[in-house]
Design goal:
The protein is of the alpha/beta class. The strands form 2 sheets. A 7-stranded parallel β-sheet has the order 6-5-4-3-7-8-9, with helices on both faces. Strands 1-2 form a two-stranded antiparallel sheet.
Length: 235
């Protein structure tokens, strides 16, 4: 490693060594994360803003819905483990003695972890966390949120559109919010031919909790993310 005016540079050999170590650490985190999730073969993942307090209507809805999923379906409820909608979902499952799972993240400043987790897996890499949140869940439930929520929403829609994930419902709760997103998709994407008309059916906007539970019950149990032929992992 060379030092010049307090700036460090790596030669090719050093870069190769650092890259090898980094890939090894990433690989370990994925393996440990998948092993952690294997304990919960039936799960539903919640997404949404971390800004909503417990008095918010979406927080209340997520809390009630998660409680019903945990109690009536006996599914694990998974979230990013933080505040807002994540807390509401974990709280709902926790309050009915259900499995309340958090996929958390290490940050330079300590992440706010909600107190309703029964188990958690702490990630160093954001992209590992995103994969784990989408891995093997039987349904994805989206409440209103900001850039992060929309990022996760459009990434999962893309994975389903390209059939990297198959047969997993994306359920959007909070029709007053999601109808506006849906209007943008139709007015700006569909109208310009950047998506097909059937792509607008990749997600479902529904507020009725009974209907949501029926959707989840109709979904077969997943084994994870689809890998193309020749890339299957051995058991």
């Amino acid at each position: 490693m060379n030092k010049d005016k307090n700036v460090y540079t790596l030669n090719k050999t050093e870069m190769h060594h650092v890259a090898h170590e980094r890939v090894s650490e990433i690989n370990k985190e994925f393996i440990w994360g998948f092993e952690f999730l294997a304990q919960y073969p039936q799960s539903v993942t919640f997404f949404g803003s971390n800004q909503f307090p417990e008095s918010n209507e979406y927080y209340k809805s997520a809390r009630t819905l998660a409680g019903r999923i945990a109690k009536e379906l006996n599914y694990a409820v998974v979230s990013g483990g933080g505040p807002g909608i994540m807390e509401a979902a974990n709280r709902g499952a926790f309050e009915v003695s259900g499995r309340s799972i958090g996929i958390t993240i290490k940050l330079p400043h300590e992440q706010v972890i909600n107190k309703y987790l029964t188990k958690e897996f702490d990630c160093y890499y954001f992209f590992v966390r995103k994969v784990l949140l989408s891995f093997s869940a039987e349904a994805f439930i989206f409440f209103p949120g900001g850039f992060g929520t929309l990022d996760e929403f459009f990434e999962l829609v893309t994975l389903i559109q390209t059939r990297k994930i198959e047969g997993v419902p994306i359920i959007c709760v909070g029709s007053d919010y999601w109808n506006s997103v849906n209007k943008f998709i139709k007015d700006e994407l569909l109208s310009r031919g950047t998506i097909e008309s059937e792509d607008t059916s990749l997600y479902t906007i529904v507020d009725d909790h009974d209907k949501i539970l029926e959707i989840i019950k109709a979904v077969p149990i997943r084994n994870g993310i689809h890998y193309p032929h020749g890339h299957e992992t051995s058991n």
